[in-house]
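Q: Hi! Curious about what SWIM-type domain-containing protein looks like structurally. Here's the sequence.
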Amino acid sequence: REAVEKWTGRICPKIRKKLEKNAELSGNCFPRDAGNGIYHVQSGPNSYIVDIIGRTCDCKSWGLSGILCPHAIAVCRAERIDPEELVHKCYTIETYLKAYGHNIMPLRDRTHWDKLNGMYIHPPLFTKVMGRPATKRRK
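A: Let's find out. The predicted structure is below.
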């Protein structure tokens, strides 16, 4: 918790490093406006369609991870949008503090645990079979 209080900015440091790496890769991406927040991005021999409003890209990286791909960062650069604003909210410092901000109370050792009068659960029976295990054959 003390380390998190030293973090600055809106998003976590590891995610910021990933954004910086993707920003470097976005140097060879060239976006062209198609209207209504949709862009056609040329990246080498490949082309991608990026929807800033819908927060999607054809490479599917942005939708899977929530972190902007190089194509989306190129569009953000063209539109003068801060890429950190479009990162999914689960990567914000505020959300991190909500998840890990509470105290976890330590447990006492096993001798102080309460005895419960429940059934004893035995491990499953295991029989070792001789030879190589059989495999399912597909016809």
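A: A fun detail: Strands lie at 29-35, 38-43, 46-51, 56-57.
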